[in-house]
Design brief:
The protein is an alpha+beta fold and 400 residues long. The chain is built from 14 helices and 11 strands. It has helices at residues 2-47, 66-77, 126-134, 177-185, 191-214, 254-258, 265-284, 288-295, 301-311, 318-327, 337-340, 358-368, 376-381, 384-387, and strands spanning 83-87, 92-96, 99-104, 113-114, 122-123, 152-157, 163-170, 217-218, 227-231, 234-237, 244-245. Helix 4 (177-185) runs parallel beside helix 7, helix 7 packs antiparallel against helix 9 (301-311) and helix 8 packs across helix 12 (358-368). The longest helix has 46 residues, at 2-47. It is globular and about 80 Å long. The N and C termini lie far apart (85 Å). Bound molecules: adenosine-5'-diphosphate and magnesium ion (MG). Residues 225-226, 239 line the site of magnesium ion.
């Protein structure tokens, strides 16, 4: 009896200790989960808050005239003939004759802006942004160049029997920079020639981007698939769905920082444009491997342009990059980095030195030029599957 009494006391207190520890751990996990839930909901709310299109009011929208209304009716009547071009987060993209029709399905990605003078109060930011920067093909022209004009915008019942916003723009047969790279690769040209041929077009694109920034906005989604090819000498800034004013709360949000975007959204757009261009040149070239091999040395004009811009990227403007691009012209001979006095930020890529073989270099360059922005983790912690994406848009106030 005495013996069993002596043993049972430490066993019971050990059990208690275990329960207490489990309880403390449970409370800690609960607290941590609540904290993550709160901070990621705040970050998503910032991302999906409206873009202030200050000068865009009801008076500046154009109502379809007879010609536009007829065009719209013809589009809707021929829905069965629309060819599917792709599907994104917000909806689908179709081609019909010389037009591209983009649909926005409610419930997928929140419509961030308030629509003036329509019964359904919210509309996708891309509609007013495209009207503002691209203008209308029929009624009102825009003072900006380098954006797609709007052929029509309307709400109509889709094939899935629900009312969806439609945005119609003229079809650019060249597609986007990714499509152009696939075509260019068939020409079997070295990257130096590709760069020399397309650099003036890239510099014109930077001019368009500079105008967007001067108007007070950032594109926020510059990547190869959002740079459209108008012709051999002109590229268009497409997909304005993420357009936000420079002071938008998203640019200082956790989501923005976690995606390693630059705090100045204009410089961020500029660096993303440069990365997209470099990726386009590399993917168009017959000697992509030579560019991969040279990239981290920074001896050629293109890689030198990239590294010198990276070294001073925090407030790099589109005009500054344009000026740099002109001085680092592709026809200049290869030069030593030591002569230019530019220090490569090689420290951050030292781990890459272990990848000495072909694919290693390829993926290392891909990594340096990547423009991906994710929010999967944020959505997971913010429990958007259960509670939806937090929405802060209040309509009927901004546009009375
Ligand atoms: N007017 C257009 N002309 C040619 N291709 C277009 C046009 N609009 C969109 N596209 C093509 O459709 C793709 C998706 O369009 P985008 O506006 O970027 O929508 P998403 O929001 O799905 O990214 C683009 O990458 C581009 O290839
Ligand atoms: Mg896109």
């Amino acid at each position: 009896m005495g013996r069993s009494f002596r043993v049972s006391i430490p066993q019971r207190s050990f059990c208690h200790l275990r329960y207490r520890l489990a309880l403390v751990l449970f409370i800690f996990v609960l607290f941590k989960q609540y904290h993550l839930f709160f901070i990621y909901r705040k970050a998503l709310a910032a991302k999906y808050s409206p873009t202030e299109l200050l000068q865009f009011t009801k008076e500046q929208t154009w109502m379809p005239d007879e010609e536009s209304a007829h065009f719209q009716d013809r589009l809707v009547a021929n829905r069965a003939a629309w060819r599917n071009l792709g599907e994104g987060r917000e909806g689908k993209t179709f081609v019909y004759q010389d037009s591209v029709i983009k649909t926005f399905t409610p419930g997928r990605s929140p419509f961030r802006n308030c629509a003036p003078g329509v019964t359904d109060k919210v509309w996708p930011t891309e509609v007013p942004a495209s009207l503002y920067f691209g203008g209308s093909e029929h009624n009102a022209t825009s003072s900006f160049h380098g954006f797609l004009p709007v052929q029509a915008y309307f709400m109509a019942v889709s094939s899935a029997s629900q009312a969806e916003w439609h945005l119609v723009t003229p079809l650019l047969k060249g597609g986007n920079l990714k499509d152009l790279a696939i075509e260019a690769r068939k020409q079997k040209q070295p990257y130096r020639d590709i760069d020399a041929h397309h650099r003036p077009t890239f510099e014109r694109l930077l001019h368009t981007l500079g105008n967007l920034h001067e108007a007070g906005y950032c594109h926020d989604d510059i990547k190869s698939s959002n740079i459209f090819v108008a012709d051999d000498a002109h590229w268009i800034l497409g997909d304005l769905g993420n357009l936000r004013q420079v002071s938008h709360p998203y640019h200082s949000s956790l989501l923005w920082r976690e995606n390693k975007q630059l705090s100045d959204c204009r410089a961020n757009d500029v660096m993303r444009a440069l990365k997209s261009y470099m990726r386009f040149v590399r993917d168009s070239a017959i000697d992509a491997d030579a560019l991969n091999a040279e990239f981290f040395d920074g001896r050629e004009p293109l890689s030198r342009l990239f590294w010198s811009s990276t070294a001073n990227c925090s407030h790099l403007s589109a005009a500054e990059l344009r000026a740099k691009s002109i001085t680092e012209h592709p026809h200049l001979h290869a030069n030593s980095m030591v002569k230019t006095g530019i220090l490569l930020p090689a420290q951050s890529y030292t781990w890459l030195s272990i990848f000495s073989r072909r694919w290693g270099r390829h993926y290392a360059v891909n990594h340096a030029l990547q423009t991906r922005m994710g929010e999967k983790l944020a959505r997971w912690w913010a429990l958007t599957g259960l509670f939806g994406v937090p929405i802060t848009t209040v309509c009927g106030v901004r546009y009375p």
